[in-house]
């Protein structure tokens, strides 16, 4: 049996910008993406610690080294710059993989 398990979590990231008139997504610094093992266009869940919003979107690579977390398109209405967010990535694992799995938490 396969289960959907937490693969990586970017904890307490600060939203650096919100651009409403843009394709919907979240831009994340490429250095942080690599450290988390997340990929461009991967689906992620996002929780906003400041207003309680939760939403699902996909990743687009942001400027390497910028430390930026930018909400684009409709997701820009879910936060304001300065809000603290948590970004969750999941993976399907079989029973044999689960016991050895440790979520990445690079941030």
Automatic annotation (TrEMBL):
Its EC number is 4.1.1.11. The keyword DNA-binding does not apply. One of its GO terms (molecular function) is aspartate 1-decarboxylase activity. Transmembrane segments: none annotated. Keywords: Autocatalytic cleavage, Cytoplasm, Decarboxylase, Lyase, Pantothenate biosynthesis, Pyruvate, Schiff base, Zymogen. One of its GO terms (cellular component) is cytosol. It holds the Pfam family Asp_decarbox. The keyword Transcription regulation does not apply. InterPro entries: Asp_de-COase-like_dom_sf, Asp_decarbox. GO terms for biological process: alanine biosynthetic process; pantothenate biosynthetic process. NCBIfam families: panD. This is Aspartate 1-decarboxylase. It comes from hydrothermal vent metagenome.
